[in-house]
Amino acid sequence: MNDIEKLKSTKKCRGCHLMGVDLSGANLNEADLREANLIGADLSEANLSGADLSGANLSGTDLSEADLRGANLNDAYLSVTKLSGAYLFRATLNGAKLTGADLREADLSNADLRKADLSEADLREADLSEADLSEANLVGADLRCADLRWADLYGANLHGANLSGANLVGADLSEADLTKANLTNADLRRTDLTETDLTDANLTGANLTNVYLG
Question: In this structure, are 139 and 190 located in the same domain?
Fold first, then answer.
């Protein structure tokens, strides 16, 4: 039984080699894919809800519109991965590597992204409401018009990030690095900016009503 057959029949394929395979639309909910090699695989529109992909290598994989609700992606490699329109509600991505990933219009609401690397990621119009992004690396990330309401961005690095038009109502940005960030027309009402570094940030047109400065 090869790895693809094993995965489809048992949904247990820890450490399997699945580089470049076509699993688009596959039903892999609650599958065990820990430490699997899925580089360049096609998992678009696949059902991976509740799946364990911790430590898996998904670099360059197509996960557009995939269902990853509640999935475990802790320490997974997702560099330059396509996740546009993917559903990641309540997914855990602690320490995940998402550099340059395409997360446009993805649903990351309530997701756990603590210490995740999202540098240079495309998060335009993504839903990150109530997500935990504490100490995450968002250097140079594109967050234009993203929904970050009540998100936890404590200690996050947002140096040079583009947050123009983003909704940050109630977000915790305490001790975050927003140096040279673009916050034009962003909604920062009721955000916590205690000890936030806003050096050279562009706040033109931003709504700063009831901001908490500590």
Answer: yes
